[in-house]
Structure formats: C-alpha cells, structure tokens
Amino acid sequence: MTAPSLPLAEFVVGVDNVIFSVDTDQNRLLVLLVQRQQVPFAGYWSLPGTLVRQGESLEAAAYRTLAEKIRVSNLYLEQLYTFGEPARDPRETTYGKRYLSVSYFALVRFADAELIAGGECPVQWFALSTCPELAFDHNKILAYGHRRLCNKLEYSPVAFDVLPEYFTLNDLYQFYSTVLGANFSDYSNFRSRLLKLGILQDTHQKVIRGAGRPATLYRFDREAFAPLKDKPLVFV
Amino acid sequence: MTAPSLPLAEFVVGVDNVIFSVDTDQNRLLVLLVQRQQVPFAGYWSLPGTLVRQGESLEAAAYRTLAEKIRVSNLYLEQLYTFGEPARDPRETTYGKRYLSVSYFALVRFADAELIAGGECPVQWFALSTCPELAFDHNKILAYGHRRLCNKLEYSPVAFDVLPEYFTLNDLYQFYSTVLGANFSDYSNFRSRLLKLGILQDTHQKVIRGAGRPATLYRFDREAFAPLKDKPLVFV
DNA sequence: ACAAAAGTGTTCCAGGTACACCCATGG
DNA sequence: CCATGGGTGTACCTGGAACACTTTTGT
After folding, report:
1. Eight-state DSSP code of residue B40
2. CATH number for the domain including A34?
3. Nucleotides of C under 7 A from a protein CB
4. How far apart are CA B168 and CA B184, in angstroms?
5. Chain B residue with minimal CA distance to A103?
6. Averaged pLDDT, B91-98
7. Closest residue, by C-alpha, to the C1' of D7
8. Where does the AraR-like winged helix DNA-binding domain start and stop, copy by copy (chains A, B) (predicted)?
9. A40 shares a domain with A148
C-alpha cells in the first residue's frame, strides 16, 4: 500500500458469520440467523455479525459473535470472503463511511449447540430451504457460505469436528446426505470408502436404535488422519 | 453487525496483489514485486498494493494497482484472503489505525505483460524460488497466493486465460510443469487427458520450433467448456 | 543416419458404481 | 417370520501410471 493521490475511502470494519449446523435427526441443514431490532432493515433476519473492537483480530471478532449467540464447544471456523463494494450498506450514506464485512464460515455441532436467549435480538435456526430474505447483502454471503460448506465436506474432515465423538456410519452418511443432498453416493460404497481410509476407529461397541441390527460405533482417529492432512482426500 | 459496547477499532483499508506469471521459455514461475521507497520497510520489496479510494470497490482497487505497474490485456484475478490482525503494520502504532489488507490473487499472460517503468518505485519480476524477504507480512500473503495458484490450476481452466490464444500441447504442459513442479504428470498421459476433455480445438495448423516433428496448434474452446463449468474437472 | 520433438498405443492396476445378498434385532 | 436397518461381497467399468513405440522434422 503506497501513498494516495485521491481521497481515500473511510471504512467501518465488521465481521459476519455464516453459521451452519446439521440436524441429522430431521435431515435438515440449518443456518443461524438473528432478527435485527434497529434500522436499517429493522425486523429483517440477518447473519450474526459485529464490529471489530480495538486490539481484536478478525477471527476473534468472529468467535465472539458466535459465542454471544450460541454456546457450543465443537465447531469449525474459517474466513470466507470480504465484501466491501460501495453502497452495500445503506448506513454508508448516513455516516459517510463504507461498511466492510469480512465474512466467516462456521459449522457447529448441533447436539450441544445451545442458543442464548435473552440477548438484544431473537436468535433462531432456519432450515436453509426455508431461509427468508435477509438484510443487506446477506443472502449473497449465505450463498457463498453454502458453496464453501459443500466443497469443504468433500475434501476435508470437517464433519468429524461436528459429529458426536462416537457415531455410527449411518450417522455419518446422514450428515453428508443432508448437506450434499441425497444421491451423493450409494450407502454401501460410502461405507467401504470411509473404512478403507483407515481414519475411523472401531470401538466394538454397538448401539441399538429401534428395529434392525445394532450399529457399530466409530470415532474419528486423529492420529491416523494426521499423515493424510493436506493430501487430496475424497469423502464423497 | 450490531451496536458496539466497547471501543471499536479504526481501520485503514488497502489491497495487496499477488501477481503471478509464467515464463514458459525459461520455466520460471514469477511474482511481481515493487521496491518500497518510504518507511516503514524502505528498500524492502513488497507486493504491489494501494489504499482503497472513495467510491472504489475492492476489486477495482486491485485492478488499478495492477494497471499502474504493468500493461497486460489477459489475466485472471480473484480475491485471496483478508489479513487484519492487530500490529500487522507498524504504522498502526504511529497513526492509531489498524491496517487491513484485502489480498487479491492474479495470474497474467507473460508474453504481453509490459512492466511500467518510471513510476515512483522499481517494479520487477522475481522467480518465486529466489524471492527475497518481503515487507510487512507479505511473505505470508505470497505463500497463501502460491497455494491458491496450484489449486486453481488443478481444477479450473485459468491456464487458458493466460496462454497465447494458439498454443501447442507442449506449451500447455510446460506451463503446468513450471507451476506445479516437474513430475506432476507424464507428458503423454497429460496429452490424452486434455484431449479427451474435448475442450481443445484442433486448428490443424502446425508450428515448427527447431528440430523435431511440427506441433499442432490448439485453442481453448470456450463453448465446449461452458457446460463443464462448475463440474469437478481435473487438469492435473 | 541420427537426434529431437510430437504423437500413439498398450498394459497394468486402483478405485468408483451399481447392485445383490447376508446378518441381527424388534415386533 | 417378517420388516427394518446394518453390513459384506461381487461384477463391471473408468481412468490414471508407466512406458514402449511410431512419426516427422532438422542437421
């Protein structure tokens, strides 16, 4: 960055989070939204976001926003994209400063995700399929996040950050199906592919859920996975 | 982004470009650097960057920076990552504002890239292998860009944005070899894979370069590629 | 004739797809 | 004993890896 020769833009920098979760029981892909209480877009639902504070990194701001809305111990988070075109926020006209949003993408474990009520604004999971029109350019950000989620799932083990520690292969399959849509793969082929990777520990424990043969519980073997890191893995 | 409860960080927003090019003749992967004339880091080489102006989008700022250093008609450009931790720029202490850098990644055609001399600071291509220690956190940004370049090449047709319109299969092979390192694939396998994709038009023209059998000139068939867009293609 | 570069073909094997089929449990 | 879900096995095919071989040029 060198010296300017024309008036520089002044910026307000915030962080917006696309927080996904997967409800495997109901086969729903969920996104966390908050309902705005102030203008602009009062009453609209939007992605949870915040402005960045002094001494706070962008990622820390993302974690803070998340922690304000939801109590969760297991999650995956990474930076998504930065949106900063002129006029993406109507407040730009009011205050004469551009609103830049660094968006983050998160995937959280649904089972232990506890929404924090009693905050300033209502917080709620929405099925992605029934997601309303959002404030600002948040639909665009959400779409971007959804694409990233699908890609991440296919070539990285984020699913295991978010599944319970012990899970059946069917749990895993349901998880992938819910996110990627059905027909992403045959179940038995999915099984053998995953098992062949050698990153699942067989606990030899069985679990019975309703009728049918008991299912084996597996856990993700981080040590076995470590050497495969950065390798082009396929989980599809 | 909601109302704050603690002092907000103030930001200066800039754009930094990781501009790559491939010199297929000498088999070198190049990155464009400029030598800083002012403090901090006076004398150090750095990525070409600029501060964002009023009414200018981030991408426009990236294009402007590029255009100030280099005249080029064929290129590929996309956003890379946003760096905004506290203290990433020493000027933060001086001016009390945080320096946020939205980095962009570009790949330009080497043949018609003409460096613009006579600007404020020296501009020069560096072979990636002989790249010096850079100003700020630019080595980190560069490393990030290099990873992106390798990934992009493998599953998207950026190479064709940057090769001459008519090229031989060997040109294409050299290009990939230079970026991904030798041994990325056998030449004859590379040939058949690319031809089988059906996205290369045989012009039936031959070109003779020194000894050896004349090579067929191909061109990228954008129409044939269109339906394959967004599909998981492999160019490796 | 020989080297150099372009281009073709062949063999082998890993891994994906699409199924059919067997196993263990509840009702 | 049958429905339900878990789990195994197989036959087929595609596509990559390695490498031998042929073709067309310059010297």
Report:
1. S
2. 3.90.79.10
3. 3-9, 16-20, 23-27
4. 18
5. B82
6. 95
7. A188
8. 155-236
9. yes
